[in-house]
Amino acid sequence: MSPALLAVQILNGLDLGFILFLVASGLTLVFGVMDFINLAHGVQYMLGAYFAAALIAWSGSFWLGLVLGAAASLAMGLVLEWTVFRHLARAGHLEQVLATFALILIFTDGVSMIFGAGALSINLPPSLAQSVSFANGFSYPLWRLLVIAAGLAVALALWLLIARTRLGMLVRAGSTHPHMVQALGVDIDRLFLLVFAFGAMLAGFAGTMAGALTGVEPTMGDSVLILAFVVIVVGGVGSVRGALIAALLIGLVDTLGRAFATDIMSLFLSRSSAASAGPALASMLIYVLMALVLAVRPSGLFASGD
Amino acid sequence: MRTKHRLGISCVALMAATVAAKADPVRIGLMATLSGPASVLGTQVRNGFMLGVKELGGKLGGQPTTITIVDDQFKPDVAVARVKDLLQRDHVDIVTGIVFSNILMAVEKPVLSAGKLLISANAGPSPLAGAACSPLYFSTSFQNDTVHMAMADYANAEGIKKVVLIMPNYQAGKDAAAGFKHDFKGKIVDEIYTPLGQMDFSSELTKVASEKPDAIYTFMPGGMGVALVKQYHQSALVGKVKLLSGDTVDETSLPGIQDAALGTISASHWAPNMDNPQNKVFVASYEKAYGAPPSFYAAQGYDAAKLIDGALRKTGGKVDIEALRRAMDGVPFKSVRGAFKFNNNGFPIENFYQVSIVKRPDGKFVTKAGPKVMTMAKDIYSGACKLPPR
Amino acid sequence: MLLHRLTDFARREPTTALLAPVFIIALFAGQVLGVSAPATLLARAAIFAIAALSLSFILGQGGMVSLGHAAPMGLGAYVTLSLSMLGFKDLLGVMACAFIVGALFSALTGLIALRTRGVYFIMITLAFAQMAYYAMSSLSVFGGTDGIALPLRSTLFGWPLLRSDSATALLALGLLAALFWGLSRVTRSRFGMALRASHLNEARFTALGFEPLPYRLMAYSFAGGISALAGVLLANLTDYIAPSFLDWHRSGELIVMVVLGGVARPFGAILGAFALIYLESLLGGLTQYWNLALGLILLAIVLARGRFERTARIAP
C-alpha cells in the first residue's frame, strides 16, 4: 500500500467524519440541552436534501437553491418543534422515542408519496463536479474537499458560538444544569426552539452535501441516524467537541476498515471467504469501537458541557 | 375486479368494475418490495402488472379478477408471513411479483408446496434454475447470471483485458460476479464486495484508481447504483477506467444519476425502444399513466399480467392449476421484448442487447437497446434441472 | 359495580383501555370484511409478544432499555437452523440450547453493557446486536446476507407438532400465557422487588448493602433466553432464517411494541405486539403507504395519552 493511497483513504474518512459531525452536532445539543431523544433527526437530514434538490431545480441556480434549502430546513425545524416536539419535551424518553419513530415512518413514506421512491439528483455545477489532481498522480473529487472545508467552518463557528456568546453560555449551562437555568428566569422553551431549529438546519445542510454525492432518496436518513447516535454516545452526550472528535474517529475507522479489511482478512482466510467476511467485519468495526469506548468510559469520551 | 390496494392510477376503474364481479373470481397475489430503499423497484413491478390488468379491463382471461398486493419489506420472515396471508386469507391461485432473490427463496416453498403457481416478475436465483426447479415456477425476467454473461461477452469484444468487480455482498451480487467471470476472457484484478445498502463508494473507487484496470464491472440495483455512478463520474477515473454495469443504470436510477449516466454501457433483455407493436403500446400507456418512462422491472410485471391472461384464455377461464401450467408452457402471450420462450426450468430463453443511455428532448433519460449480444440465450443452470423441455 | 371497576381500570391503565377496544373491533371488522386472521398471523403475533414481554420485563422492572433485543431472538433462530442442519430437531432440546445461547449472549454482553446507564445503555446494546448481525451476515454456511431455508422443522419426541401453523400458534400462545403468569410471579417476588429498587433508587439500594449488578444481570440474561425461545418458534414458522432477524429495526420494533402497550405492564407488551403485527398486515393490505398510516396512528396515540399518563423517565 502506497502512502499516497493511504492519504486519499484518510481524506475519504475525514469526508465521512465531517458529514457525521454536521448531523451529530445538532443531535447532541438537542439531547444535551433538553434531554430529548430525537430519532427524527435523520428525517431532517433527508428533508434538507429534498428541499435543496427541489429548490435547485426550481430556481435553476445551485447556490440559490442551496441557501433556500437551508432556510427551508430551518423553517421545517421550527414547524416540527411547534407541532410535535414541544408537546413531548416533558414526556419520558420512551414516549419521545415512540413519537419520533412515528415521525420517521410518516416523513419517509410521505416523501416517497410526493417525490417517488426512486432517487433524485442534486446536480453540481460543472465547475464543482470534477477532481483536483495532486502531484503524485492521485486526484480527489473537489466536492468532497468542499465537504471537509464546510465541516471545518461549521465546527469553528459552533465553537465561537458556544464559547464566546451569551446564547452559547446558556446552551452550556442548559446542558449541565437545566433547572438552575430555568430558575434564573431564562425562557428554556425558546432556547430549545432555537437549538432545535439550528440543529435541523445543520442536518439538512449535511443531507444536501451528502446528497450531491450519493443521490437523494427517502430512506437516506436511516443509516446516518444510527451513525450519528454512535458519534454522540462515543463523544459524550451534549459535548460538541466530543461529537467532532468522535465523528472524525468513526469516519476514519469505517472508511479505513472498508478499504483494508478484506485485504487483511485474506492473510488468514482463503480469498473467497475473505471477500465474504471482510465487508461484514468492516461494518462491525465502528460498533466494536463504541463498545470498547463505553466499556472503558461509560459516559463517552467527553463529559457533557465542555 | 376488486383490489385491496386502493392507491394508484387504476383505482377508480377497478372500483367501478367491482360491481360487475359476480362469479367466483381468479385470485392473484402480487408481492413486491414496496417500502424501504428498494421500493422503487417493487413499485415499478407493481405498476407494470397493474397497467397490464387495467388494459384488459380488470379481467384477466375475461374473468372477474381479485388482486391483493402485499409488501415484503425486503425481509424474508415478513415475506413468508405475507405470502401465507395471501394463501390462507385471500386463497390466491397465483403468486407473482417478487423483486429480490432471497425473498423468492423464502416464499418459494410455501407457495409451491401448496400447489399454487409462482411467477417471478424479477428475481431469478440460481437454485430455482437448477436442481430445485419446479414445473409450477415461471419467470418473466431472466436468471441472475445471464445479463452479466452478456456484459462479459461485450467486454471481450471491446478488447477489455483487466477488470475490477464491485458487487453488493449478497446472493445476486455473487451470481453477478459468477456470471461475468463465466464468460470473461481477461483478468479479474480485484473483487470488491460492499455491504448491501452502502452509499459511499469513495474508499472503493480510490482502491480501483490504484489498481489501474481497463474497466469496472458492477451490479448495483436501485439507490446504490445512483450513488456509485455519480461518484464515479466525479472521480478522476472518467476517461481512464470504463464503467460497465448490469441492472444498475436503468429508468429506476436514471432520475437520480441524470447526465452522469451518459456514456455508460450495460446489457438488458429489454429497453423502451424495442421495436414491436405490443411494446409501443406498453411504453406509451405506461408514460401516460405514471408520468415517467418504464424500466425493465415494469416490463416484466406487465408481461406477467399478460402471461396469466393468455393462460386463462387458453383454459377458457377455468382456474385449474395443471391446465394453467400447461397453457403457460406454450407462451400464450406476446412479450414486450419480442422473441420469448420458456426453458425447461421456467426461465425465459431470450435475446440480450447492448444498452446505452439517451437524454430525450424533454429532459428525461431512457435506456436504448443497440446491437444484440446474445441470441436466444439459456441460463447455465438449466442442465441441472431434471424437468423435460416445456 | 362492573362499571365502577371498568372506570377504575381505565383510570389506572389508560393505554390498555384505549387500545383494547380498538384492537377487538379491528379483529372483528377483519372477520367481517373477509380479512380473517389466519393462523400464521396469530402465531407471528404471539411469538413477537413473547419477545416483547421479556423486553418489557427488563425495561419496566429494571429500566434497561435494550435496543438489541432482536439479537438473542435471531440467535435462537440460528440455533434452530444449525441444529437442524446437523439433523437434530427435537423441540425441547432445541429450545434448551437456544435459551442457553440467548442467555449466554446477554450475560456476556450485559457484563459490559450494564456498566452504562440511559442512552449509553441503549446504544451499547445496539452495538452488540449489530456485531451479532454482521457476524451472522458473514457466515456463508448460513447463507450470508441472504439467509437460508430451514431444512427441517422441530418435532416433539418425533411427532411433527409444528407442521401446521395453527399448532405453532397454539404452542406460542401457551408459552406466552405461561410466561405472563411466571413473570407476574417474579415481579411480586423478592427478586422482582430488588430489581425494581435497583432501578428506582440505585443509591439507596447500594447503601442498603445490595449489589445491583447480579440482579440486573440475571434479569437481563433471563430475558435474552426467553427472546431466543421466541426465535426458535419464529424460525419454525418462517422456514427461512436471515440476518434481518437480528436487524436493529427489529429491536426497535420490539421497543415500539412495549412502549405502545405501556411500559411496566406485562399485558401492555402483549397488546402492543398484537396491535403492531395486526396493524402491519391490515394497513399493508390497504395501501402501499402503510408506514405513513402506521406512523400517524402511533403519533396520535403518543400525543393523546401525553395528557393522561407519564411513563417512567430514564435519567441519561
SSE inventory with pairings:
The complex is a heterotrimer of chains A (306), B (390) and C (316).
Chain A: H1 3-34, H2 41-59, H3 62-88, H4 93-115, E1 131-133, E2 139-141, H5 142-164, H6 166-176, H7 178-183, H8 188-214, H9 220-235, H10 240-265, H11 271-296
Antiparallel strand pairs in A: 1-2
Chain B: E1 2-3, H1 11-18, E2 26-32, H2 39-55, E3 65-71, H3 76-89, E4 94-97, H4 101-113, E5 117-120, H5 126-129, E6 137-139, H6 144-157, E7 162-168, H7 171-183, E8 187-194, H8 202-211, E9 215-218, H9 223-234, E10 242-246, H10 254-257, E11 265-268, H11 277-290, H12 296-314, H13 321-329, E12 341-342, E13 348-359, E14 365-377
Parallel strand pairs in B: 1-3, 2-3, 2-4, 4-5, 5-6, 7-8, 7-9, 9-10, 10-11
Antiparallel strand pairs in B: 11-13, 12-13, 13-14
Helix pairs in contact in B: 2-11, 2-12, 3-4, 6-7, 12-13
Chain C: H1 2-12, H2 14-33, H3 39-62, H4 70-85, H5 91-113, H6 118-138, E1 148-149, H7 165-188, H8 190-200, H9 202-207, H10 212-238, E2 240-241, H11 248-261, H12 266-286, H13 290-305
Antiparallel strand pairs in C: 1-2
